[in-house]
Fold this sequence. Notes:
The structure holds two protein chains of two kinds. Chain A is of the alpha+beta class. Chain A has a five-stranded antiparallel beta sheet, sandwiched between helices. Chain A has a five-stranded antiparallel beta sheet with strand order 7-6-10-9-8, with helices on both faces. The longest helix of chain A is centred in the C-terminal third of the chain and has 52 residues, at 630-681. By secondary structure, chain B is α/β, with parallel strands linked by helices. Chain B has five helices and five strands, in the order βαβαβαβαβα. Chain B has helices at residues 14-27, 38-47, 66-76, 92-98, 110-125, and strands spanning 6-10, 30-35, 54-57, 81-86, 102-105. The longest helix of chain B is centred in the C-terminal third of the chain and has 16 residues, at 110-125. In chain B, 51% of the residues are buried. Chains A and B meet through helix 23 and helix 24 of A and helix 1 and helix 3 of B.
Amino acid sequence: MRNIVNKTKASEIRFKSLFKGIPIPTYSWQKIDDDLILIDYNAAAEKITNGMIKDYVDKKASEMYINQPEILEDLNRCATDKVSIFREMKYGYMSTGVDKFLSVKYGFIPPDLVIVHTEDITEKKTFLERLKKSEKELQALNLKLKQKNDMSEEKYKTIFENTGTATIIVEDDTTISLINGQFEELSGYSREEIEWKKSWTEFVSEEDLERMKKLHYSRRKDPESTLRKYEFRFVNREGNIRNILIVIDLIPGTKRSVASLLDITASKKTEIAKQELYENFIDLVNNSPDGIIIADENGCHLFANQRAAEITGYNIDELLGMSGWELTRPEEIKKYKERLKKRLGSEPHKNVYERIIVRKDGSELLTEFRTSKTIWKGVIVPMTVIRDITERKRAEEKLKDSEEKYRYLFDNAQVGLYWSRISDGKFLECNDTFAKLFGYDTREEFLADYNAIEHYIDPNARNKLIDKKKVENYEIHVTRRDGTPIWLNISARIFEKEDRFEGAAIDITGRKKAEKKLKESEEKSRNLIDGISSVGIGIDIVSKDYKVLFQNQVLKEKFGELTGKICYKNYMGLKAPCGSCPMINALKNNRTESTELIAANGNSYEIFSAPYLGSDRNTDKVIEIVMNITERKQAERALRESEEKYREAFNRAEFYKDIFAHDINNILQSILAGTQISQLILDNPEKLDELKINAEIIKDQVVRGSKLVSNVRKISKLEEKGRSLEKIEILKVLKNTVSFVKKSYKNKNLAIQVDSVDENLFIKANDFLEDVFENLLINAIRHNKNLIIENTVRISRVRKGGIRYLKMEFLDNGLGVDDSMKERIFQRGYSKEKGVYGMGLGLSLVRGIIEIYNGEVWVEDKVEGDRSKGSNFVLLIPEVV
Amino acid sequence: MFKIEKILIVDDERSLQFFYEKILTIGGFRVAGIASNGKEAVSMFKSFSNKPKVILMDQRMPEMSGIEASKLILQIDSSVKIIFISADASVKEEAISIGAFLFIDKIITVSELLGAINRAIESYEL
């Protein structure tokens, strides 16, 4: 559509430009009553009158040409008789006072116009007069030459010099023998440089040279039939080309010729310009996007251009042989014939209208007719410009649809849309949505009442906006009609030249309020954070990609400034995120998560992570409360260790109590049984030995009971006493113990031997060492059924783990210890296997003591794999050198 | 009248082994054997061609407890009367449930022990 409109406009401009650009001064006169009024003129007319023609517009011809009745008469005759008039005349321009020769053409344009073309032919006229004069002078010269005898050379020369035209005399061999001053001027050479030195051929362009040489020689053979007057291109000293009209003739009775050269370059240029103008006009018509048809008063075509042929489907020859009615729907012929009549009769009529033409193939085409009149071969005839407007119509329909759609979109958009004037803030257009933003019910109401300038809360904000030329998502704060403030998000463009502002707006007041509240909330949070900081609690905000976004002072002091850094690397000193990262869990589960972690600084922290909605409204980060729980953890650990210790102590106490109860029951049971049996046999003298045995057993049980009590006490002391040790010579202690055991078991046949690697053997120990030896020796006695109870204590040195130990082996010939019991008999704690018992408290005490000495105790078969041969209780105690 | 019923003594306490043997002798019973732990008792019981009718069984002993040993013995001969003599009353119910004839708390007098053995013997006769 735009193309079509542009093309049409361009075509019109070209036609108008053609008229206005005609280099011939042209004037339009309108007949009013009995006079003619000057109503228009073109650029050439303006130029030739030095612009003064404008002062004559609207003036009457009768007043302007009161002293030139012949012009007034021509104008009136053209207007009245509707004929064209041509006339050449000398005219004195009233505006400039300059006299010119004009070729004047009067043409009548119905209904009442006279177009006057005034071609300046002054130069042409002058040239022709000069040529006429030159020819006359040449003839006179020839005549004079014929009468040379009667005239002196000086006289001829005077005549020659004063011809007023460049004149030369050429010798038979083409040498120029004589020139006058005008030729000097034309050629640019001096007389001395040319005469008898140059040939006329040096002044002729290559294109014309051969032709002129032929004429030169022809003239000398047959002067009568040789061309005397022709044009050629003259080359002057500077190499410039001049168009020359030459008149040449032989001097009678000689082979010399005399030639007059008239410079017609200027008139040649005008002629070329006219020719070009004509060619341009033809070209323009032929290339016009519109069909142009000129017809006679009956509608028969006189002229048609190529485009007319294309539009109608006929070729140009066909068109010229037919009338416009053949292109008309039969039912419309009458209507258009009447319209033509009106056109030709100067009655008011419509000269631009849409008309359907019938093409050669019978199809119909919607066109636009622009009708006017023109002069064809001196007769005024109708001219029609035909334009195929099918595409334009389609485009117009499309545009109409499109406009309707856009109008609908505009009116119904959920976004406020508007145009306003920059200069005064007046709104020129908007939709209802926009009007409602400001509290108006309708756009009409809004447009009539609201002004942008009056409603900016910050008056400078509007200027700043205008300075930006174009904005997107720009926030402005204005007021509604009732004065309440409103925040708008606008995207707008400023068209400064058109004084126009157009944009789209949405109400973001709610969001701004929410943001304000959020900011306030954040401020409160900050205050809270500061408050929490004062009690030593760390707070930070961490993004889902582990970046620290915020730290309070507490964390900064503990870990340094970590904003923007990765949390697990800088807090924890880890290469990968923490296994129990509370941030990840909090974001995943959308709830507060906590964990305890040990930081790179060795301190323990309890971290609570909660999803955090910041002012950016994204839940891709957490706020964390970080509490240093190092002291609490230490206290918990101490408490746990203490609990463990007390639990162990309790279990041990239970264990000891259990063993004690068991052993003491057995002791009492033995004493009771022994006593009752003894009572039964007390009066029987034969049973005296048996009675003694019973008494020994009862005594043994009492000793055992006493030892049991003693062991319980010592175990208790062992727990209390801890590790206070001193250097002790073990052989001395061992020998004392052996001596004590032997005294205690006088009735037993004991064979205790000590076999030591050295005499002076020291260990770090305390007074419990004696109990170790005593318990091992007594156990060996109690669990032995042999008559001779053997026990050998073998002492040697061994190295283990780089430490020197004394190895003490107590080898007996007792009952031995089953493999399943070898570890259990040293048990020091309470066991679920209550039913299985070892060897009483003694061995538990032994292990407790030996562990205090940093030693080890175990039992193995004396003869490996044969428990019946007895046991070997082994002690390893670090030796003190 | 000499009673020929054989009784097995099972106790790790050597003084009690001695006195139980004396009491049984006084009571007119024969001691089939003395075992110092459960494992030894089972082994010994298996070896008897003429199985003892009563077993005096301690609970807490090395290598194998009285309960464990009783289960195995009763699997061999469910008619044998096992009398538990123990200070560990916590296993009393378990002992009865596995088929022990009687559970007697230590400390026990000579007459109580002999009475218990007689009841066990009499239960056969019934």
